[in-house]
Each structure stands twice: as structure tokens, then as C-alpha cells.
């Protein structure tokens, strides 16, 4: 049985305080615990241990290697490896029950390609393949042969991840990381950081909503969509804000035969199988920053934009019925859609792990490992995430990722 976290910390000083216990914060906690062992002195402050409105819980829980820059491809390749090996990794922490299987559904992603997007798509496929990905570019004929239910009349082809892409159990990943971290000595509390104290260019303490003040050696901002709130407590600013994403589960009167991938339409609408049903969503037209507490679903998005796009791309979707819907928040980096990872150059013990723009779940294994390396080893030891450094933000130098959904 899961043990709930306490409201208050067990002591008043920690080497590392992590603000946010979602999948990024818990991955950081896990990797720190594995690197430091008995030396671990870390506290994770999570404002809602039910995770009801967390981006992790409300994610569509998928992973892909179809990105436009090499580091994101490599991050996902490690993510797939971590997901495949997750049950084995977690075995030492599940002595009373079987370790979790994340149920990785390796159906791949299928990006629909327009005539004017062929050259860029082919370049992305070649880049991905040069890094070991199994992406293939299919001309309209072979695309129709592989997926006969797809309307290809307005397509110049499709980019299909034939292996190492798909979807999995997001909460299984979070719960496993959290359990392993706690079993290894990391403390979790159900609380919120409301203020930070600074002295001589360093964060010295965090004040909690329950009134306690805790001293810290390093402060890690893993607050997801609330990242800017935490940064502001240290007098800092990052271009990260919550952006709403609506998800809809629907039933179709006509089944789709074969192994259906996650289809990304030209309109930006995606659709994939979810058991006997289907999961879909898109980028809303009103895609601006949302209120932190606004999780209201705009049902017109399905009726006015998603369903017409689905019916055009997959004609079998002519009779649909929405079964369930929800709305989550992307921690959207408005500069370049990529994560911000690293210490602040002036507030030298303030660590960013923010702004993953919908990629946080799939990137969490590699990001958690990288942050732990920066803290414990003083630099990246495995994947070099230097392009994600904070310094690009005040310089206004984006590190762009073109393949954003």
C-alpha cells in the first residue's frame, strides 16, 4: 500500500530541495538517490500529492523520436530504453508486490506530410535515421498500402516511426520513480513553497504554506506549469506559462483494422487507439497562457475542429461519440518549445528543470539523470544538454524544435 507524504518536513535543513513532485521532479529525486546513496539529503515539495491536476496525470503519455534536432532524438532514445527496462529497474523497491509494467504500446507515430513539407520531412527522417531511429518516409502509394483506412489524396507522404515510438502508463512511471526515490531516502511532503530567501547570490531557505522555513543547499525548480511562479520568488524570470490542451476519448461505429499508430494530421489533430476507443486532441485556436487553476474543457474544440479533421483524414470516423474528456496544462516555453535545464549564472544554486512544452513526460528519464549529474558531478556525464541552458533565455537566442505537437 502506498504511504502518503507528510505535510511537514522531518527536519529544517536539506542539501537539496526540489519544488514539484511530478514526473520531472521525481525523476530528479530518483537519479539523485541512486547517485548519492546513503548521503542523500533531499526534500521534494509537492503541492498536491493526489496529482489530480498534474501535467503528468493529464498527459497523453506518449514518446517519439521524430524531432528536428539531435539532442531531442537522443533524449527520447534513452527514454524508450528506460521505459522498456522500468520493471527491472524498480524490482528492488517492490518487495511486497510486482514491479510496474508501463504497458508500452509500440505502435509508432505517423506524421502526415503536405506537398510543401516534403523536403523538410525527408531531412528530418534522414537526421533521425542517422542517429539510429527507425523512421521511414512513405510515398502516398506505400502509405496507403500500410494504412488503407487513411485518406492520402492531399498528402505527399508520411513519416512513420516503425519502432521505439508509442504510448505508455504515465502514472505508472511517476509512481515508480516516486516510490524508488522515497525508498532510497528522499523525503516527500504534501505542501507548497510560498517564498524563497536569498543571500549573497544564493537561495538560502524556502518558506512553506504551512509556515515552516527550511534551509537548502540547492533549490531545484521542477514546478511544471507553475515554474515562473517559483522563479519569481528568487527574482528571476523564464518564458514558461501553462497552456491548455484538451483530450477526448471517443468511440467509433467503424473499427480501424490493423496496428494503428498515433496519427498526426496536417491540421495538428492527433488520434490513436486507446483500448476499444480512440484518443484525440489538437492545439487549440486560443492557445495562449491560461490561468493556473483553469482546467475547463472547451468541448466546441472537438465539434468544430477535431471531428472534421478526423473525418477528412480517416473517413471511417464518420460516426463518433465522445466518451470522456479532460484538460491538462503544457508547461509551455514560449521562447523555443524546449526545456530549460541548468543552474542560474547569478543565483548560483537555483536549478531550472522547466519548460518542456508537452515533452516532459517522455524526456523525464534523461532530464532527471542530467540534473543529477550537474548537481553531483558538476557537469553532464551522459547526454550533453548544454543547448538547454538558461543563458539562452536572457540572450533571446532560441534553440528551436520544429516538430512540436
Automatic annotation (TrEMBL):
Q: Which SUPFAM superfamilies match?
A: FAD/NAD(P)-binding domain (SSF51905)
GO molecular-function term, one example from the UniProt record: oxidoreductase activity
Q: Start and end of every FAD dependent oxidoreductase domain?
A: 15-374
What domain of life does the UniProt record list for this protein's source?
Answer: Bacteria
Keywords in UniProt for this one?
Oxidoreductase
Q: Which Pfam families match?
A: DAO
InterPro entries to which the protein is assigned, alphabetical: FAD-dep_OxRdtase, FAD/NAD-bd_sf
Claim: Ribosomal protein is one of the keywords in the record: no
Protein name (Swiss-Prot/TrEMBL): NAD(P)/FAD-dependent oxidoreductase
Lineage, broadest ranks: Bacteria, Pseudomonadati, Pseudomonadota, Alphaproteobacteria, Hyphomicrobiales
